[in-house]
Design goal:
Elements: H1 3-24, H2 31-41, H3 48-58, H4 67-89, E1 93-94, E2 97-98, H5 100-104, H6 106-154, H7 161-186, H8 191-218, H9 221-224, H10 230-233, H11 239-247, H12 250-261, H13 264-269, H14 271-280, H15 283-300, H16 309-323
Antiparallel strand pairs: 1-2
Helix pairs in contact: 1-4, 2-6, 3-4, 3-7, 3-16, 4-6, 4-7, 6-7, 7-8, 8-15, 11-15, 15-16
Amino acid sequence: MNNGELLAAFKEKAVQIDAVMEADLAVVESPLLAEIIRHAIFQGGKRIRPLLTLLAASLVGNPPADTPRLAISFEYLHAASLLHDDVIDHATLRRGAETANTIWGMEPVILAGDYLHAHAMALASEVGGSTAMALIGRATAAMVESEFMQMHNARESLIAEEKYFQVLMGKTAALIAAACEAGIAHNQGSNEQRIALRTYGTNLGLAFQIVDDLLDYLGDPAKTGKAVGNDFQEGKMTLPLIKTLEKAEAKDRDVLIGLLKATSQERSRQIATAHAIIEKYQGFSLARTQAESLLAEAIAGLAIFGEAKAKDSLIGLAQYVLSRDK
Protein backbone atom coordinates (compact mmCIF):
# COMPACT_ATOMS: atom_id res chain seq x y z
CA MET A 1 0.00 0.00 0.00
CA ASN A 2 1.54 3.31 -1.10
CA ASN A 3 1.12 6.61 0.74
CA GLY A 4 -1.69 7.77 -1.56
CA GLU A 5 -3.74 4.60 -1.01
CA LEU A 6 -3.08 4.68 2.72
CA LEU A 7 -4.16 8.31 3.12
CA ALA A 8 -7.26 7.71 0.97
CA ALA A 9 -8.27 4.77 3.19
CA PHE A 10 -7.63 6.84 6.32
CA LYS A 11 -9.66 9.73 4.92
CA GLU A 12 -12.62 7.41 4.35
CA LYS A 13 -12.37 6.12 7.93
CA ALA A 14 -12.01 9.69 9.24
CA VAL A 15 -15.39 10.57 7.72
CA GLN A 16 -16.94 7.70 9.68
CA ILE A 17 -15.23 8.86 12.88
CA ASP A 18 -16.57 12.38 12.31
CA ALA A 19 -20.09 10.98 12.03
CA VAL A 20 -19.69 9.19 15.38
CA MET A 21 -18.49 12.42 17.00
CA GLU A 22 -21.34 14.43 15.44
CA ALA A 23 -23.87 12.04 16.98
CA ASP A 24 -22.09 11.93 20.33
CA LEU A 25 -21.79 15.71 20.66
CA ALA A 26 -25.48 16.29 19.93
CA VAL A 27 -26.03 16.16 23.72
CA VAL A 28 -24.16 19.45 24.28
CA GLU A 29 -26.84 21.98 25.28
CA SER A 30 -24.89 25.25 25.53
CA PRO A 31 -24.75 26.94 22.10
CA LEU A 32 -21.44 28.64 22.91
CA LEU A 33 -19.84 25.43 24.18
CA ALA A 34 -21.07 23.56 21.11
CA GLU A 35 -19.65 26.26 18.82
CA ILE A 36 -16.21 26.19 20.45
CA ILE A 37 -16.10 22.38 20.37
CA ARG A 38 -17.07 22.30 16.70
CA HIS A 39 -14.34 24.82 15.95
CA ALA A 40 -11.79 22.73 17.86
CA ILE A 41 -12.72 19.35 16.41
CA PHE A 42 -14.08 19.85 12.91
CA GLN A 43 -11.47 22.32 11.67
CA GLY A 44 -9.33 19.64 10.04
CA GLY A 45 -7.04 16.89 11.28
CA LYS A 46 -6.44 13.32 10.11
CA ARG A 47 -8.03 11.58 13.15
CA ILE A 48 -4.86 9.52 13.62
CA ARG A 49 -5.51 8.70 17.29
CA PRO A 50 -9.00 7.24 16.88
CA LEU A 51 -7.88 5.50 13.69
CA LEU A 52 -5.13 3.82 15.66
CA THR A 53 -7.62 2.64 18.27
CA LEU A 54 -9.77 1.07 15.55
CA LEU A 55 -6.80 -0.52 13.77
CA ALA A 56 -5.36 -1.89 17.01
CA ALA A 57 -8.70 -3.46 17.93
CA SER A 58 -8.90 -5.03 14.45
CA LEU A 59 -5.59 -6.88 14.85
CA VAL A 60 -7.24 -9.69 16.82
CA GLY A 61 -10.52 -10.09 14.94
CA ASN A 62 -13.62 -7.99 14.42
CA PRO A 63 -13.67 -5.24 17.05
CA PRO A 64 -16.67 -4.77 19.37
CA ALA A 65 -19.44 -2.59 17.91
CA ASP A 66 -18.80 0.19 20.44
CA THR A 67 -15.09 0.55 19.58
CA PRO A 68 -15.64 3.75 17.53
CA ARG A 69 -17.10 5.43 20.63
CA LEU A 70 -14.01 4.48 22.62
CA ALA A 71 -11.83 5.72 19.76
CA ILE A 72 -13.32 9.22 19.69
CA SER A 73 -12.40 9.76 23.34
CA PHE A 74 -8.78 10.07 22.17
CA GLU A 75 -9.70 12.70 19.59
CA TYR A 76 -11.53 14.65 22.31
CA LEU A 77 -8.52 14.53 24.60
CA HIS A 78 -6.24 15.62 21.76
CA ALA A 79 -8.56 18.53 20.92
CA ALA A 80 -8.72 19.54 24.60
CA SER A 81 -4.94 19.64 24.78
CA LEU A 82 -4.75 21.84 21.67
CA LEU A 83 -7.30 24.28 23.10
CA HIS A 84 -5.29 24.57 26.30
CA ASP A 85 -1.97 24.78 24.42
CA ASP A 86 -3.22 27.70 22.34
CA VAL A 87 -4.32 29.55 25.48
CA ILE A 88 -0.96 28.92 27.18
CA ASP A 89 0.96 30.00 24.07
CA HIS A 90 -1.36 32.94 23.28
CA ALA A 91 -1.52 31.43 19.78
CA THR A 92 -3.58 33.23 17.14
CA LEU A 93 -3.54 30.66 14.33
CA ARG A 94 -3.94 26.88 14.08
CA ARG A 95 -4.16 25.04 10.74
CA GLY A 96 -4.40 28.41 9.04
CA ALA A 97 -7.51 29.49 10.96
CA GLU A 98 -8.01 31.74 13.98
CA THR A 99 -7.64 29.91 17.28
CA ALA A 100 -10.65 29.54 19.56
CA ASN A 101 -9.06 31.79 22.20
CA THR A 102 -8.64 34.55 19.61
CA ILE A 103 -12.34 34.34 18.73
CA TRP A 104 -13.97 33.72 22.12
CA GLY A 105 -11.34 34.63 24.71
CA MET A 106 -9.48 32.53 27.26
CA GLU A 107 -12.13 31.69 29.86
CA PRO A 108 -14.73 29.94 27.68
CA VAL A 109 -12.01 28.12 25.74
CA ILE A 110 -10.36 26.79 28.90
CA LEU A 111 -13.78 25.57 30.06
CA ALA A 112 -14.45 23.98 26.66
CA GLY A 113 -11.13 22.14 26.92
CA ASP A 114 -12.09 21.00 30.42
CA TYR A 115 -15.44 19.75 29.10
CA LEU A 116 -13.80 17.74 26.31
CA HIS A 117 -11.34 16.25 28.77
CA ALA A 118 -14.08 15.27 31.22
CA HIS A 119 -16.27 13.93 28.42
CA ALA A 120 -13.37 11.85 27.08
CA MET A 121 -12.81 10.32 30.52
CA ALA A 122 -16.52 9.55 30.96
CA LEU A 123 -16.76 8.01 27.49
CA ALA A 124 -13.64 5.89 27.98
CA SER A 125 -14.97 4.64 31.31
CA GLU A 126 -18.41 3.87 29.88
CA VAL A 127 -17.12 1.97 26.85
CA GLY A 128 -13.73 0.63 27.88
CA GLY A 129 -14.13 0.31 31.64
CA SER A 130 -11.32 0.70 34.15
CA THR A 131 -8.64 -0.36 31.63
CA ALA A 132 -9.39 2.46 29.18
CA MET A 133 -9.93 4.90 32.05
CA ALA A 134 -6.48 4.10 33.47
CA LEU A 135 -4.82 4.46 30.06
CA ILE A 136 -6.40 7.86 29.44
CA GLY A 137 -5.64 9.00 32.99
CA ARG A 138 -1.96 8.10 32.71
CA ALA A 139 -1.69 9.72 29.27
CA THR A 140 -3.29 12.92 30.57
CA ALA A 141 -0.93 13.06 33.55
CA ALA A 142 2.05 12.57 31.22
CA MET A 143 0.82 15.35 28.91
CA VAL A 144 0.48 17.82 31.78
CA GLU A 145 3.84 16.91 33.30
CA SER A 146 5.54 17.33 29.92
CA GLU A 147 4.25 20.91 29.78
CA PHE A 148 5.96 21.62 33.10
CA MET A 149 9.16 19.98 31.81
CA GLN A 150 8.96 22.11 28.67
CA MET A 151 8.58 25.28 30.74
CA HIS A 152 11.61 24.28 32.79
CA ASN A 153 13.64 23.46 29.67
CA ALA A 154 12.72 26.80 28.11
CA ARG A 155 14.66 28.55 30.87
CA GLU A 156 17.81 26.66 29.90
CA SER A 157 19.79 27.60 26.79
CA LEU A 158 20.90 23.99 26.32
CA ILE A 159 19.09 20.73 27.03
CA ALA A 160 20.29 17.14 26.88
CA GLU A 161 18.81 14.54 24.56
CA GLU A 162 17.30 12.76 27.55
CA LYS A 163 15.27 15.85 28.52
CA TYR A 164 14.18 16.35 24.92
CA PHE A 165 12.73 12.83 24.82
CA GLN A 166 11.12 13.20 28.25
CA VAL A 167 9.07 16.09 26.87
CA LEU A 168 8.20 14.22 23.67
CA MET A 169 7.09 11.15 25.62
CA GLY A 170 4.42 13.16 27.38
CA LYS A 171 3.58 15.76 24.78
CA THR A 172 3.18 13.51 21.74
CA ALA A 173 3.84 9.83 22.38
CA ALA A 174 1.79 9.11 25.54
CA LEU A 175 -1.63 9.74 24.01
CA ILE A 176 -0.82 7.89 20.78
CA ALA A 177 0.43 4.91 22.79
CA ALA A 178 -2.72 4.95 24.94
CA ALA A 179 -4.95 5.09 21.84
CA CYS A 180 -3.21 2.00 20.45
CA GLU A 181 -3.22 0.03 23.69
CA ALA A 182 -6.84 0.85 24.47
CA GLY A 183 -7.90 -0.56 21.11
CA ILE A 184 -6.19 -3.92 21.54
CA ALA A 185 -7.28 -4.16 25.18
CA HIS A 186 -10.91 -3.49 24.20
CA ASN A 187 -10.83 -6.57 21.94
CA GLN A 188 -9.37 -8.74 24.72
CA GLY A 189 -5.79 -8.70 23.43
CA SER A 190 -3.14 -10.44 25.53
CA ASN A 191 -0.63 -8.63 27.71
CA GLU A 192 2.10 -9.33 25.12
CA GLN A 193 -0.08 -7.81 22.40
CA ARG A 194 -0.80 -4.76 24.54
CA ILE A 195 2.93 -4.20 25.09
CA ALA A 196 3.55 -4.46 21.33
CA LEU A 197 0.91 -1.81 20.62
CA ARG A 198 2.15 0.42 23.44
CA THR A 199 5.65 0.28 21.95
CA TYR A 200 4.30 0.88 18.45
CA GLY A 201 2.34 3.96 19.56
CA THR A 202 5.17 5.38 21.64
CA ASN A 203 7.74 5.00 18.86
CA LEU A 204 5.35 6.31 16.21
CA GLY A 205 4.79 9.47 18.26
CA LEU A 206 8.50 10.01 18.92
CA ALA A 207 9.46 9.42 15.28
CA PHE A 208 6.72 11.76 14.09
CA GLN A 209 8.19 14.60 16.15
CA ILE A 210 11.75 13.86 15.01
CA VAL A 211 10.62 14.08 11.39
CA ASP A 212 8.92 17.37 12.29
CA ASP A 213 12.28 18.59 13.59
CA LEU A 214 13.93 17.61 10.32
CA LEU A 215 11.26 19.22 8.16
CA ASP A 216 11.76 22.49 10.02
CA TYR A 217 15.27 22.67 8.54
CA LEU A 218 14.89 20.63 5.36
CA GLY A 219 11.23 20.90 4.36
CA ASP A 220 9.55 22.89 1.62
CA PRO A 221 7.71 25.85 3.24
CA ALA A 222 4.97 25.56 0.60
CA LYS A 223 4.19 22.07 1.95
CA THR A 224 5.00 22.42 5.66
CA GLY A 225 3.33 25.81 6.07
CA LYS A 226 6.31 27.03 8.10
CA ALA A 227 9.35 29.07 7.19
CA VAL A 228 12.61 27.11 7.02
CA GLY A 229 14.40 27.24 10.36
CA ASN A 230 11.33 28.44 12.27
CA ASP A 231 12.19 26.29 15.32
CA PHE A 232 15.77 27.57 15.34
CA GLN A 233 14.59 31.15 14.98
CA GLU A 234 12.43 30.61 18.09
CA GLY A 235 15.45 29.19 19.92
CA LYS A 236 14.02 25.67 20.20
CA MET A 237 16.41 22.83 20.95
CA THR A 238 15.32 20.07 18.57
CA LEU A 239 17.06 16.75 17.92
CA PRO A 240 19.31 17.68 14.93
CA LEU A 241 20.67 20.61 16.94
CA ILE A 242 21.08 18.57 20.13
CA LYS A 243 23.00 15.85 18.30
CA THR A 244 25.21 18.46 16.62
CA LEU A 245 26.07 20.15 19.91
CA GLU A 246 27.08 16.76 21.33
CA LYS A 247 29.63 16.23 18.50
CA ALA A 248 30.74 19.69 17.43
CA GLU A 249 34.23 21.07 17.94
CA ALA A 250 34.51 23.95 20.40
CA LYS A 251 34.55 26.67 17.73
CA ASP A 252 31.38 25.50 15.98
CA ARG A 253 29.67 24.70 19.26
CA ASP A 254 30.36 28.24 20.50
CA VAL A 255 28.81 29.67 17.32
CA LEU A 256 25.60 27.69 17.84
CA ILE A 257 25.40 28.50 21.55
CA GLY A 258 25.99 32.16 20.77
CA LEU A 259 23.13 32.13 18.29
CA LEU A 260 20.81 30.38 20.75
CA LYS A 261 21.49 33.18 23.23
CA ALA A 262 21.06 35.90 20.57
CA THR A 263 17.83 37.60 19.49
CA SER A 264 15.36 35.83 17.24
CA GLN A 265 16.18 38.39 14.52
CA GLU A 266 19.86 37.46 14.66
CA ARG A 267 19.03 33.74 14.56
CA SER A 268 16.82 34.39 11.54
CA ARG A 269 19.74 36.05 9.73
CA GLN A 270 22.08 33.17 10.62
CA ILE A 271 19.87 30.16 9.81
CA ALA A 272 22.14 29.22 6.88
CA THR A 273 25.14 29.20 9.26
CA ALA A 274 23.34 26.93 11.72
CA HIS A 275 22.19 24.66 8.90
CA ALA A 276 25.76 24.30 7.60
CA ILE A 277 27.13 23.40 11.05
CA ILE A 278 24.39 20.82 11.65
CA GLU A 279 25.10 19.32 8.22
CA LYS A 280 28.83 19.27 8.96
CA TYR A 281 28.35 17.10 12.06
CA GLN A 282 25.64 14.91 10.50
CA GLY A 283 22.97 16.21 12.88
CA PHE A 284 20.24 15.67 10.28
CA SER A 285 21.27 12.15 9.32
CA LEU A 286 21.76 11.13 12.97
CA ALA A 287 18.26 12.35 13.86
CA ARG A 288 16.79 10.54 10.86
CA THR A 289 18.62 7.33 11.79
CA GLN A 290 17.07 7.53 15.26
CA ALA A 291 13.60 7.93 13.76
CA GLU A 292 14.24 4.95 11.48
CA SER A 293 15.38 2.85 14.44
CA LEU A 294 12.28 3.74 16.48
CA LEU A 295 9.95 2.82 13.62
CA ALA A 296 11.82 -0.41 12.87
CA GLU A 297 11.26 -1.46 16.49
CA ALA A 298 7.59 -0.44 16.25
CA ILE A 299 7.06 -2.54 13.11
CA ALA A 300 9.02 -5.53 14.43
CA GLY A 301 6.71 -5.76 17.43
CA LEU A 302 3.71 -6.24 15.15
CA ALA A 303 5.05 -9.62 13.98
CA ILE A 304 3.01 -11.37 16.69
CA PHE A 305 -0.18 -10.47 14.80
CA GLY A 306 0.61 -12.75 11.85
CA GLU A 307 -1.29 -11.89 8.66
CA ALA A 308 -3.85 -9.56 10.21
CA LYS A 309 -5.03 -7.08 7.56
CA ALA A 310 -4.90 -4.12 9.94
CA LYS A 311 -1.17 -4.75 10.42
CA ASP A 312 -0.50 -3.59 6.85
CA SER A 313 -2.12 -0.23 7.63
CA LEU A 314 -0.06 0.18 10.80
CA ILE A 315 3.15 -0.66 8.94
CA GLY A 316 2.13 1.72 6.15
CA LEU A 317 1.51 4.50 8.67
CA ALA A 318 4.98 4.03 10.18
CA GLN A 319 6.53 4.21 6.70
CA TYR A 320 4.47 7.30 5.89
CA VAL A 321 5.70 9.07 9.03
CA LEU A 322 9.26 8.59 7.83
CA SER A 323 8.61 9.69 4.24
CA ARG A 324 6.16 12.56 4.80
CA ASP A 325 7.02 16.03 3.53
CA LYS A 326 4.53 18.09 5.53
